[in-house]
């Protein structure tokens, strides 16, 4: 593998520009470096960060390769600056057994663009009725570290309790899609003024907040690690603050998506199902609180909930459209817009919420590491001043359902390195 010499980058956007030599998969040297045999990357004006880790990606393989494959999703991830992604279990068939999680893991290795970690289902078939064989999946070659029925809530408190208890013995994390299903029957959009005005059945904030509160209590009793997926309401921030204060650090963690940081239910005016997502886009007040909570650490990290869907499932009537939006290639830009340009986070903060905390939550030893000599060269180079215009058709995903179509966004990923190998540069693979 050719060595790579990144010239003149500012690590974490701090201090003077330095050269970073990457060889044999690690950061070999940082300083003023000459390396005649290395490929030289001019990184003037750019910020060097640890590669991003996404705890929440839908790669759709097996089953819906017409919308995304492990290879195309991995390409989108690498171009978006990611070096590791967690592939959710709501595939077809569901990843609720060792055969499927090993298949996903192997296909991820074959694609070789990011480390693909399969998430195992908590319950058989995501039906919420019977625990899946968590132990078999954890001990399989795929070494499953995270379990989730995402797309569905583990609504039965006894099943959730058992899952949390088993998870402690296995040393894994349960990630909850917090949605009390009895409160969201027929729901189409955030319950509130907008939904009432436009005639959508509402998805109340309390459906999320009540499950988060319940599960924090269950996790405390089980001494288990609980992760809350896609936090979307101001009230959930209050519950998390309470639970983290009460439980001490470490037991509870939470993620927010880029779309819940930037977009609001004002978008519903267009009736365009590209804006339909679960949990739904909330109010501007919620988005403001989510940003503040992420800056403060009450919400630990950003996760994309990258959810590709076929044209016929999005370009249709709102009520029958599937929820979800692409996110891997736009995450850094949305975080730049909402968190960096607003002064809420500096680049070290971005490294924390997009790389270090997600790696810690999932227990990854070789991701989210400091950008220092001797560390694994999982890195991303970002041009903080550049802007780009999002075009769904130009993204690496098979599906094109981006809510940012035509938007000009700041922050461009110019280079991604996975263990010292260039996986993406300037919006393209390799
Ligand atoms: O909007 C969503 N889409 N939310 C989820 O929880 C699932 C996801 C999907 O799989 O499409």
UniProtKB/TrEMBL annotation:
The active site is at residue 305. Binds 2 Zn(2+) ions per subunit. Residues 45-233 form the Dihydroorotase catalytic domain. The keyword Metal-binding applies. Pathway: Pyrimidine metabolism; UMP biosynthesis via de novo pathway; (S)-dihydroorotate from bicarbonate: step 3/3. Substrate binds at residues 58-60, 90, 278, 309, 323-324. GO terms for molecular function: dihydroorotase activity. Belongs to the metallo-dependent hydrolases superfamily. DHOase family. Class I DHOase subfamily. PANTHER family: ALLANTOINASE. This is Dihydroorotase.
